[in-house]
Here is the input.
Amino acid sequence: MAKKSRKQQQSGGTPATVALTAAGTAFTLHAYEHDPASPSYGEEAARALGVSPDRVFKTLVADVDGELTVAVVPVAGSLDLKALAAAVGGKRAAMADPAAAERTTGYVRGGISPLGQRKRLRTVLDASAGAHPTVCVSAGRRGLEVELAPGDLAALTAAVMAPIGRV
Here is the structure.
């Protein structure tokens, strides 16, 4: 996780919630007890929050033609790497090395948020997000989700919206 300022430590905020607050964006924070034995962080979040898995989105980091790129897709499906590459004008995409993803975003795997990353990366939000009034994404640590409007998520991350998820 990214190093927190004294103000963040006092408020209990993460870089993601600090970014949302600074932008004046409406959001709801949802905390749940994370089970380290859970095989899927996103599906665990959906179950714990009682939210449909098509409204809970996971944040994945991929390497597109040598450039780290963030993909935000529903936990109910998987990432289509070819579609991700095409969405950013690239040729080839592969999942990024987990250590590189953690180092670049400032978050740990299973808690990577598309918001408040240490280094802003190109971001693609699956087009299915637009079908929901709100979606949930990681708030920057395991067991903490933020719910917000998909348009706000796209605006804050400068995301391109494209069909990059597979069911």
